[in-house]
Every structure is written in structure tokens, then in C-alpha cells.
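Q: What changes when 2-acetamido-2-deoxy-beta-D-glucopyranose is included in the input?
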Amino acid sequence: ARASHWDKYLAKLSSVGSISEEETCEKLKGLIQRQVQMCKRNLEVMDSVRRGAQLAIEECQYQFRNRRWNCSTLDSLPVFGKVVTQGTREAAFVYAISSAGVAFAVTRACSSGELDKCGCDRTVHGVSPQGFQWSGCSDNIAYGVAFSQSFVDVRERSKGASSSRALMNLHNNEAGRKAILTHMRVECKCHGVSGSCEVKTCWRAVPPFRQVGHALKEKFDGATEVEPRRVGSSRALVPRNAQFKPHTDEDLVYLEPSPDFCEQDMRSGVLGTRGRTCNKTSKAIDGCELLCCGRGFHTAQVELAERCSCKFHWCCFVKCRQCQRLVELHTCR
Ligand SMILES: *[C@@H]1O[C@H](CO)[C@@H](O)[C@H](O)[C@H]1NC(C)=O
Ligand SMILES: *[C@@H]1O[C@H](CO)[C@@H](O)[C@H](O)[C@H]1NC(C)=O
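A: The predicted holo structure follows.
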């Protein structure tokens, strides 16, 4: 039940104006006591935590825009509905993307020089085996990950980390951060006569958050249903189906199957798919057949305003006309 405060905390964090005073930390509903303490001690980092929460919600809604469950936040609590407070696959995704969001935003803040406590990763230096020079500001992902681990995971650790839900949440939090780590990239700049690249300097950079969201969405589709099992003196989560490959640190895991999300059920926070826009020609989940759960769909002609006949004018602007185009819009019954 305590896990249910997580989404409250996310929504609260992402909607608060700014966190610049210790008082704000106390007013943030949904934070547990240990987090309030961390908030006060790390005030300058809290704005990044807030940005991370926003980033996570936006990315979740983007990745799930064509799904029956579209990561909608509800006005009434719990924010994402019961599916996130239960141990479902959707909860797995929300936890993973949120802990990744915090790690990502804190890391970027370090690089931008906003924070006193961290800066660029100075451990990346020298000449690489490929012959380029490490130089410039490498993103300090280790700091971002460590901050996310202590700030986000403390919610689960405070429960003794022994309940199945705590184990599930901790696993998915870590999988979220791993999605950044495994997609770290090397960015380079060429130096030399007219960009001849005689000297190349490179630095390590976090991937765009969109890529992290996409990777986690793939993990969502391939998530493993698990159950708790006693292993020696502790408990661990193992695949419910023994024929399945054991999950890795990077996979998402869940404990309970999800509802089908077809019909509205406000008590569970399920909005249903009535009124959702669907794709008439797609056979996938965004297609009208699946998205509308076989209820059928309405078709309407709508006028779409578009820029057209664009001309480039010397120098330097582009002028377009407004054109109206008729398109068919399908929505679920
Ligand atoms: C999600 O779907 C509901 C209807 O089921 C709709 O009201 C809402 O605007 C959608 N949210 C997003 C973020 O697209
Ligand atoms: C609808 O689905 C088809 C087939 O998957 C795809 O080619 C098309 O781009 C989709 N249309 C829209 C508007 O997303």
C-alpha cells in the first residue's frame, strides 16, 4: 500500500513551481521522511529531480500514445490509476522511466555547471585506443545514477526491501538507470584545417531521453512475469514460467497481469478507450480493431490546416501558404 504514494510524489514533484527552500521539501506530499531530509540537504539538486519527474511523465505519454493504457495522469489520485499501484507491467515502466528521468536530469545539470556538488566526469581523459583525444565535458552519469539510487530507491529500502513489491520496484528502478548506461554515446568534434579532423576530441554523453524511453518501451513489451522465491536466507524474484529465460538486470519484471484497459473503470483509474483516435489500416495495437476492443469506431471528416507551397526567399526566410486538407479521423465507439 505504501508503494501507492509513489505516483502522488511524482505528480506533485513535476507540478511544483520550484524547490528552492527547505520549507518546500516539507510541503511535498508523498515524499517519505528520508526523502524530505535528502531534499533539504540537496536543495540545489531538487530542481533536476523535478525536471526528471516531468521528463518521465512526458516520455511515458509519448511512448504509450497509441496504446490502450496511455499513461494518462488523472485529476484524482492515484495519479496513474490503480494499475501503477499494483505490481503490473505498467507500474514496472513508470518506475523504470522515473528513476531514469531523475538520473538523466541530475547528470545533465552536472554538465551544465548548474550544481556545486558535481560537474563533468573528469575520469574520462587521455588518448583512446582509437587514437582520439578525450576532452571536453563528459556527462557524469555515475553521479546522476548514484543520486537516483539514493533518492528514488530509499522509498523501497525503508520498507526493508523484502516485500515482493519492494523487490519488483527496486529491480525496475535499476533497469531504468541501466537503459541510460547501456546507451551512453561518444560525441566528437574535428579540429584541423577546414575540418580535416587531424585532431579529434571526444567526450561521453548521455543518449537523448527519447532513446531511453524507446528502449524501456521495448523492455515493457518483453517484460517478465515473476514471483517471489526463497533463495537461501533471502527472497528473490524468479520467472513464473520456468521455461522462460531468467531476466537480466536490464529487463522489466512484474508480479500481476494487467487488466485489458478496454472499459472505463474510474475506481481503478482506467479511462477506457472510448473516444480514442485509432488507425483504420493498422493491424497492431494502434489499429481500430484492437484499440477499440472490437466495439467499432466512428469516422469523421476533419479539416487539417497545413503549411504548403513553401518558397525559399533570398535571404533568408521561407514563406508558406496555409492549405486545408480533408482527412478521415477514426475514433473508438
Ligand atoms: C488518454 O486517453 C484518454 C481516453 O481514454 C484521453 O482522455 C486522454 O486525453 C489521453 N491522454 C493522453 C496523454 O493522450
Ligand atoms: C496507420 O497504420 C499504417 C499501417 O501500420 C501506417 O502505414 C500508417 O502510417 C498509419 N497512419 C497513421 C496516421 O499513423
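Observations recorded in class: The CA atoms of residues 82 and 106 lie 29 Å apart.
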